[in-house]
């Protein structure tokens, strides 16, 4: 009888350990697949958020594609964070300076 109860306890302990290990493996798989989903979503977002302009609307300098801001359905890029700050204060002023293709600034009428 003692042997049977010891075997039963060992069996229960072994099963609980196996179930716990299996649950941890499943959780790791879920975390990995969740991380991959996030990366894919970011990649899609970056592809869709490609900058409209190739020249900074504020300074006229070449843009840094990492410094962007979305305004009225378009993503604008800037040469530096200072230009981004200026743009945020009055976006209409600076978007009106860009040519229709975003590759140059419009000539002033002075």
Estimate percent helicity.
Answer: 55-70%
How is the CATH topology of the largest domain named?
Answer: Ribosomal Protein L24e, Chain: T
How do the SSEs run, as a string of H and E?
A: HEEHH
Strand order of the largest sheet: 1-2
The main β sheet shows up as: 2 strands, antiparallel
Average residue-wise pLDDT? 78
Flag low-confidence runs.
35-47
Total helical segments:
3
Question: What's the shape?
Answer: rod-shaped
Strand percent estimate: 5-15%
Query: What structural class do helix, strand and pairing data support?
Result: mainly alpha
Question: How is this structure best described in words?
Answer:
The chain is mainly alpha-helical. It has two domains: 1-48; 50-103, Ribosomal Protein L24e, Chain: T (Roll). It is 55% helix and 12% strand. The chain has three helices and two strands; from the N terminus they run αββαα. It has helices at residues 2-48, 81-89, 91-95; strands spanning 64-71, 74-78. It has a two-stranded antiparallel sheet with strand order 1-2. It starts with a helix and ends in a 15-residue tail after the last helix. 11% of the residues are buried.
List the helices and strands and how they pair.
Elements: H1 2-48, E1 64-71, E2 74-78, H2 81-89, H3 91-95
Antiparallel strand pairs: 1-2
Salient structural properties:
two-stranded antiparallel sheet, mainly alpha, Ribosomal Protein L24e, Chain: T, 110 residues, 2 domains, 2 strands
Put the structure in a nutshell:
This protein has two domains: 48 residues; 54 residues, Ribosomal Protein L24e, Chain: T. It has three helices and two strands, in the order H-E-E-H-H.
